[in-house]
Design a protein that fits this description.
homodimer, 7 helices
Chain lengths: ~120, ~120
Amino acid sequence: MDPDPLSTTLAALSDPTRRAILARLAAGKATVTELAAPFAMSMPAVSRHLKVLERAGLIARGREAQWRPCRITAEPLKDVADWLAHYQRFWTESLDRLDEYLREVQKKEKRHGHGKNRAKRRA
Amino acid sequence: MDPDPLSTTLAALSDPTRRAILARLAAGKATVTELAAPFAMSMPAVSRHLKVLERAGLIARGREAQWRPCRITAEPLKDVADWLAHYQRFWTESLDRLDEYLREVQKKEKRHGHGKNRAKRRA
């Protein structure tokens, strides 16, 4: 059974080298040789990573036989973003709780009269 | 070599059952039995999925020996969102290009006098 497209995208992204390749392509088209340069990696190893990215629709390659520049095709990333959006409230809420906690700490600090250091800092 | 946290998160998310478990937990805490119910899956299989999610920090489990409810801990999802944000311009640009294309088509339609249907729709 073939994995669903979102699973294929997430699996393709779950590798630091493939994410680094995408980051490079975000700056513009590049050939396999150019992409391989920053990595201590054989060309076949880079080609395998490119194939995974290509299968996930995250990159596309030119048709010119010798010079087949890769470019980013970020549409699948939008699907990841759309999926993530359902969970955004969880980390927003966490930050809200942190904010509330910090305000509580500040209030306590005031109540217990630890204002001296603050006054010093202000001077 | 242990994978980096972002790779661990993305790998954990690259499975439709694990994403379905997260979706269920987004609605509230649940026990393993409750989580297993909608899936035609053995308890050990569900437990294995939960372990992957737990290792990625995407869920946490209660300490009560018998009743160990799982809950979502979405902080790693924020790291995915932060990573994704670098690429947002790619799909926004694609939509801009689509918008431009549609406007171009509309302009052509007007120029060639295909305004009849539009007039009908407006009536």
